[in-house]
Design brief:
mainly beta, four-stranded antiparallel beta sheet, 128 residues, 1 helix, seven-stranded mixed beta sheet, 11 strands
Length: 128
């Protein structure tokens, strides 16, 4: 059974840092493009970052550029989202998603419709 599990969400003060993890079970993440998305209360889900299967294609939402870093460790079957200089507007449930295929080898997208598999999400709250 293909399963993605996010972890690392927490309550953090503005300016703080968190590292989110997206772990796969039942399959190898190595052949998948991975996206991170978030959804705040009353707002639509938005793409935050993504990384291709080969790790060479990476994209970020403009508002997180320079603060968030996506990385993958295929040996640990995990993708990470390092989030620094967190702001209250980063508060949301964060989801990871996976897409397999030849496109995913060299490409990724911060568009939700691209992805077939989704995790259940982890809550990130940035507040003083």
């Amino acid at each position: 059974q293909v399963q993605l599990v996010e972890s690392g969400g927490d309550l953090v003060q503005p300016g703080g840092s968190l590292r989110l993890s997206c772990a796969a079970s039942g399959f190898s993440l190595a052949g998948y493009a991975i996206g991170w998305f978030r959804q705040a209360p009353g707002k639509e889900r938005e793409g935050v970052s993504c990384v291709s299967s080969n790790g060479y294609s990476i994209h970020y939402l403009d508002s997180v550029k320079g603060r968030f870093t996506i990385s993958r460790d295929n040996a640990k079957n995990t993708v990470y989202l390092q989030m620094n200089s967190l702001k209250p507007e980063d508060t949301a449930v964060y989801y990871c998603a996976a897409q397999f295929g030849s496109w995913a080898l060299r490409n990724c997208a911060v568009t939700a419709t691209v992805y077939d598999y989704w995790g259940q999400g982890t809550q990130v709250t940035v507040s003083s």
